[in-house]
């Protein structure tokens, strides 16, 4: 993207939940069980990889500077032991730096504490999480454990042997990865996260993420991800000024943050705003659009942001 003055930089940022790289054209559910997994591996291995490579080429054609991915797998059976972040990054023609934050795919089932469940490098097998791909060099990476929602019993309707049928929701270990991106001799902090489905937990996690991003007051920052929250929920928590294709809403002088969002899910006919790019008020959102990817049930959120950075 074109550069402005020495203290201003216009970046194109993409936030995308890639649903473990599942091809959008693939309607059948991911099978459970080893034998069924192996059959799926034989049947769809090439289709998964091609769809991911096409996604990387799509991001490159959009001239992306930063790509924040959620629901990324690495070395899991359902994605044929591949490193999905690496596949996407390699498909983008320019030189990119990438890294992810993963938790073991079984950690949410056995309720591991976040500092045991999270891996700043991919586990030997079975990793799932978030990642960042940057066109610019990265000076440092940071990881923030966010924990999981409490165990919940959710009524599902109907009556079972012992009364109303319920399902047990265990929650999943969540985290945020952030990168100190070097733009010339200046630093911009980028965060990528995927918050819990449980709304009270997601709101708490979002506040924790924003507090962490603001720890270094002299460094500009942008937080991206699948928040599992609607724009109204985030606005009540952070007093955000919502930006979508309709333009600016509210009075920026009374709000501390931008929330750049758009309808992204389901991909074929979006009805919900779960994917967001959040930034402090000294940034300037210039444009927002969504793009349907060759993978996932989400659309990618594409945001052009004019950022103010401080010298390192």
Describe this protein's structure.
With 312 residues, the protein is an alpha+beta fold. Helix content is 21%, strand content 41%. It is built from six helices and 18 strands. The chain has helices at 34-61, 84-91, 107-110, 114-117, 199-213, 231-238, and strands at 8-17, 66-74, 97-104, 118-119, 127-134, 138-147, 152-160, 163-169, 174-183, 186-194, 220-226, 240-244, 247-248, 257-261, 275-280, 284-292, 299-308, 310-311. Strands 6, 9, 10, 11, 12, 13, 14, 15 and 18 form a nine-stranded mixed sheet that branches. A seven-stranded mixed sheet has the order 4-3-5-2-1-17-16. A two-stranded antiparallel ribbon has the order 7-8. α1 (34-61) links the parallel β1 and β2.
């Amino acid at each position: 993207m074109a550069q402005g003055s020495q203290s201003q930089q216009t970046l194109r940022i993409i936030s995308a939940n890639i649903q473990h790289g599942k091809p959008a054209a693939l309607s059948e559910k991911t099978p459970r069980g080893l034998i069924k997994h192996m059959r799926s591996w034989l049947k769809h291995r090439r289709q998964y990889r091609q769809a991911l490579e096409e996604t990387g080429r799509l991001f490159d054609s959009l001239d992306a500077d930063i790509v924040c991915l959620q629901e990324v797998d690495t070395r899991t059976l359902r994605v044929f032991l591949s490193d999905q972040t690496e596949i996407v990054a390699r498909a983008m023609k320019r030189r990119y730096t990438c890294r992810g934050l993963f938790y073991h795919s079984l950690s949410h089932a056995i309720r591991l504490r976040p500092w045991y469940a999270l891996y700043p490098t991919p586990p030997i097998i079975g990793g799932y999480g978030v990642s960042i791909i940057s066109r610019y060099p990265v000076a440092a990476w940071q990881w923030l454990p966010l924990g999981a929602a409490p165990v919940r019993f959710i009524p599902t309707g109907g009556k079972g042997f012992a009364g109303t049928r319920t399902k047990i929701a265990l929650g999943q270990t969540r985290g945020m990865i952030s990168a100190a991106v070097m733009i010339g001799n200046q630093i911009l902090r980028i965060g990528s996260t995927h918050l819990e489905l449980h709304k009270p937990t997601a709101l708490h996690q979002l506040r924790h993420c924003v507090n962490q991003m603001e720890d270094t007051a002299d460094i500009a920052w942008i937080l991206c991800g699948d928040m599992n929250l609607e724009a109204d929920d985030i606005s009540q928590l952070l007093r955000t000024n919502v930006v979508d294709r309709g333009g600016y809403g509210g009075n920026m002088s009374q709000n501390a943050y931008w929330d750049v969002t758009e309808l992204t899910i389901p991909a074929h006919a979006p009805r919900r705003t779960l994917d967001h790019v959040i930034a402090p008020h000294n940034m300037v959102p210039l444009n927002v659009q969504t793009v349907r990817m060759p993978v996932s049930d989400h659309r990618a959120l594409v945001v052009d942001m004019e950022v103010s950075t401080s010298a390192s």
